[in-house]
Design goal:
2 copies of one chain form a homodimer.
Chain A (H helix, E strand, L loop, with lengths): L13 H12 L5 E8 L9 E2 L3 H9 L5 H9 L5 H9 L5 E4 L5 E2 L6 E6 H6 L1 H25 L3 E4 L8 H13 L4 E2 L2 H7 L9 H7 L2 H11 L5 E3 L5 H17 L6 E4 L4 H14 L6 E5 L4 H9 L6 E4 L1 H4 L9 E8 L2 E2 L14 E7 L5 E8 L7 E3 L2 E5 L2 E2 L6 H13 L16 E3 L1 H11 L1
Helix pairs in contact in A: 3-4, 6-7, 6-13, 9-10, 10-11, 11-12
């Protein structure tokens, strides 16, 4: 009934299952470790924000091939009965280390490391990449918007343009983690408890035929929750009609929340509208702007001293338009006792079970990260990957969305402003520990 | 259990519901017509392919606010009890005109026109935009790939990088409509009957530790369905191991289907590998290439005479990376007896209920489209918008996916090659009929 339904193990590339059949025939059941990470930064990105873990853990905990899944696989004619019987009883029994949602991370750092019997670890690849990659991308772009907005409110308006339904839900959640104050997405309000926001579209004004009639009617229905959209015909004329209706609302003991600008030169118009509102004694009425905003345009508006109190951020955020995918991969780094790495040109991986260590300066800012072996320790360095699942069971309840949001806020405060520049020209230092580096050399040899 | 679940009417921007409450209070129940169209071409697009109608009709036919939807809306404190009671009994009772899935269309042409009581027509906006926009975008990019591939097979490999789960399903369906031959997405195979495809990843080779062992094991499990991935360590060495195993398979009465290249200089490597296979008497073994392909790289490979029989197309297709969103909108064009248009700068709309007419040349190619009034007729012009829903009921069963695929093929054949150039530099002529133009002038005045 909601978009948070069970996906099931057929949400996968076929090769995960054909490989599994191959492993099964050769009895390759030893535990393998796979590492999930983003190989490279998209242009204009120099950090990422972890998101999507909750979906992963829920799906792993309930991973089952149900009767109709098996029936479909059988019908393909590709698989032997013995293998299908094996799948029928399969559950995920592995261990998961993960960056908590809301954690700032960098290219090549493991977001997840999964150790499980080879087949179990393999068949979840497609699902994990899909689930983590998109949410981390959106949370990262949202963080850039939040930084640009410099304290002004941001609202997710992207639902109509996201790449499908599930994306719309994930965008609402990921933007909220990164500090947005709300979303227009009602279902996200219901499912995740995110504050919802929105008032009227141009069609509303058109249905009434004039700004004044539309605003008056709206104020009747929502005397304490009204934001008027003022650009259907002409923004400044719309603003003066909004002033009239707002003054009447005031007389009646109510208050207009705000006006919304959706087209034109926002810097100029917002200052003119602010002036009109202030002159009329309506200093409490906020100005909300929407229409084509992203982190760069928000930055321009803030630096251009636009009189905008809140931004509705839509399309370019909801699809991460400047970087619509992450170069996210899931690579085998150990099979049984044998650490492994891939050597394809430009696609090398770091073999071995790993940990990410974060070193902080005395002032609390992050100084450097170190990717090391899982069992290493470093003085005054925080290990970032946490054990979240053992033998297929989650080790603790997942934090609430509010707690994740708070964790992001704290985490983001530790990232120095030099890494938050929109041009993303400075890269945060991530080193490989001497022991991990040495291991790689033995794997090459 | 599947991703084709009921979404429900809360999958919407809040303002659709607040507007509805406003309309309700003023008893604005007259029928309205809304037009859904793409305002502008993304750069490097000059045509679109209609897709997503089936999802829309299914959702409209079952649109209901269930008990828990109403409870959530009540809990927001925004809505009066009388309005919530109204929503509780609401069903979609409108008429829908739509371009059949698989139809080629152009900017500003209505994809859907919906006439329904104002509230019903309004609250479905967000859902319709989300559902049609993404699928049309992917079908359009897929058509570009199919044109570039010039008869070679294309397989959707994008599932791991699509923007969420639902996107992964929609990409599989939309690419198949536009002529792809299969998908790696197993769930799309089950849900839509699309042929599924895939064999092994690098991790498979790594688990065995050598190309030869991995290929031999795979051939044991899939003696008649094997494609070997040959670039885990070194492509040419991998190819010579594949030859050894393929010759053994031949001796045993089986046949290797193909080898897959996933990195390096594909033009050069594919020719070298083709030569090695041919020399060994393995002319029947196909070469499949994957890794970063999109319509431009496919075109380069085809023009560069790469010896590639099939392309696996992933990330850049699955997120439509060069154009990750369409400028798709849903605008009121009539309320009651009054035709309406929006005049915001750069966002003008065409008022009135409309039809799209396609004029063909004697040789069967499309010559020109005409956007006219719904009740106009033109000699030898095909009206493209079909009545698909009347009073909330679908007028006929939706065509099968195979029929939609065939409709696309026929449709695409009618589009002259000058419009299929990847640079998208020539725009197909779309005119406004004299009567429709005249109507717009009366609406301005």
């Amino acid at each position: 009934m909601t978009v948070n339904h069970r996906l099931g193990p057929l949400f996968t590339d076929l090769y995960e299952l054909t490989m599994a059949a191959g492993y099964f025939d050769r009895r390759l059941f030893d535990p393998a470790t796979f590492s999930l990470f983003i190989r490279n930064y998209p242009s204009q990105r120099n950090y990422f924000v972890a998101a999507g873990l909750q979906d992963c853990l829920q799906e792993l905990a309930s991973l089952r091939f149900v009767e109709e899944d098996i029936a479909f696989l059988n019908q393909t004619g590709l698989f032997r009965a013995e293998f299908l019987s094996y799948l029928k009883q399969l559950q995920f029994s592995g261990d998961v280390y993960a960056l908590p949602e809301g954690t700032i991370f960098f290219a090549n750092e493991p977001i997840l490391e999964i150790t499980a019997p080879l087949i179990e670890a393999q068949i979840i690849e497609t699902f994990l990449l899909n689930t983590i990659g998109f949410q981390a991308l959106i949370a990262s772009k949202s963080a850039r918007c939040v930084h640009s907005a410099s304290g002004r409110q941001l609202i997710d308006f992207s639902l109509r343009r996201t790449q499908g339904h599930d994306a719309g839900m994930k965008v609402a959640r990921s933007t909220y983690i990164a500090g947005f104050t709300g979303t227009s997405n009602v279902l996200a309000g219901k499912e995740y408890g995110i504050p919802i926001s929105g008032t009227m579209a141009h069609s509303y004004v058109q249905a009434f035929g004039s700004d004044f009639d539309a605003f008056t009617a709206y104020a009747d229905t929502f005397p304490n929750n009204a934001v008027f959209l003022i650009d259907t015909f002409d923004t400044l004329k719309g603003a003066s009609e909004a002033v009239k209706v707002a003054l009447q609302m005031k007389k009646d003991g109510h208050s207009l929340l705000g006006v919304r600008l959706d087209s034109g030169d926002m810097n100029r118009l917002s200052r003119q509208v602010r002036h009109m509102l202030d002159e009329a004694g309506l200093k409490e009425v906020k100005i909300i702007a929407s229409g084509g905003f992203d982190e760069v345009k928000i930055d321009e508006a803030v630096k251009g001293e636009a009189k905008i109190d809140a931004f509705g951020v839509g399309t370019s955020l909801g699809v991460s338009a400047d970087a619509p995918f992450a170069d996210i991969v899931y690579k085998m780094v150990r099979y049984g006792q044998r650490n492994v790495r891939k050597l394809s040109p430009g696609k090398e991986t770091l073999g071995g079970d790993k940990q990410v260590f974060r070193l902080c300066s005395a002032n609390g800012f992050y100084r450097q990260d170190m990717i090391g072996l899982r069992d290493e320790t470093f003085n005054a360095a925080l290990p970032l990957l946490e054990s979240v699942m053992e033998s297929g069971r989650t080790v603790r309840p997942h934090p609430s969305l509010e707690d994740i949001r708070l964790a992001f806020k704290t985490n983001f405060a530790g990232l120095s402003d030099i890494y938050k520049d929109l041009a993303a020209s400075t890269f945060y230092p991530v080193e490989i520990s001497p022991r991990l580096r040495k291991l790689q050399q033995t794997l090459v040899a």
